[in-house]
Structure formats: structure tokens, C-alpha cells
Amino acid sequence: MEACLAARAHTGGLMALPDLLAAVRKRRGSVAPAVSEDDVLRAIAQLRALGGGWAVVTAGGVRCVRSVPMELDGDATTLLGHAAAAVPRGVLSAAQAAHATGWAAPRVAAALEALLRDGLAMVDDGAKDGVRLHWYPALASS
């Protein structure tokens, strides 16, 4: 829980399970008993029972821990999946999203804006080609 909360400002409340496991292991140090992925999943299941939005969700084959009370709609989940499969991982432009999904520009824009509004994405307008990129910190390669 502490690792998710510490990263929440950066990740928007969605953290890739491998990144969470690495953060937990780092916090515990090398002297403490090893923590497995199953240990983390069981802890998240216990937190889920308390409410507050804790859940394990899958986006593009990447399991992530959600630590905020929100539901991802189908369009947002689809875009997260494509961002997880993109190169570099966790980065997607509107054009890439439209091409990957076959959606019209307004639908892509609405889904991208929803992810930005929920704090799951960040915008990068500094690309050399001038294309606006949407970064998903929970999915970006570490």
C-alpha cells in the first residue's frame, strides 16, 4: 500500500505489478524475507475488501494495481492496452491510437482526454516532429 501511495502522484493511481513488486522489495531491503508476486496479489485482495478502489486490472497483458476508486471504461482500457504494446512502451499518439483501434478522431480524443483527466496519462508536446504524445507512467518501461 505504501509503495502505491508513494507513486500515486506520478502514476495516477495505476502501477504495473512488476514495478510495485520491485518497490516493495526495495522498501523491505535485503534482510527481510522475500516477497513474491502472490504475496502482493493476496495483500491487494485484502485491501480490496476494505474498499477505496484497490484492485488488480490488466491492460494490454500488463497486470496493474489500481489504488484509486475509479472504473476504467472500455475505451480507456483499450488505449492502455495499445500503450502497453507500443514502442516505446507506455507512449501513444492520437494517430497511433486511431490506427490501432480503427476509431474516429473524436472517439480517440475523448478516450485520451478521460485518461488525462483521471491522472493516468501525461502529455508531451516536445517531440521533434511536433506530435503530441500521451505517456502512461504505469506502463512506461522502467
What kind of sheet is the major sheet? 3 strands, antiparallel
User: What percent of residues are in strands?
Assistant: 15-25%
Helix content: 40-55%
Tell me the CATH architecture of the largest domain.
Orthogonal Bundle
The CATH first-level class of the largest domain comes to Mainly Alpha
What is the name of the CATH superfamily of the largest domain?
Answer: Winged helix-like DNA-binding domain superfamily/Winged helix DNA-binding domain
CATH fold annotation of the largest domain: Arc Repressor Mutant, subunit A
Summarize the structure in words:
Helices cover 48% and strands 17% of the residues. The protein is α+β, with helices and mostly antiparallel strands. It folds into two domains: 66 residues, Arc Repressor Mutant, subunit A, CATH 1.10.10; 62 residues, Winged helix-like DNA-binding domain superfamily/Winged helix DNA-binding domain (Arc Repressor Mutant, subunit A). The strands form two sheets. Strands 1-3-2 form a three-stranded antiparallel β-sheet. Strands 4-6-5 form a three-stranded antiparallel β-sheet. Helix 5 packs across helix 6. The longest helix has 13 residues.
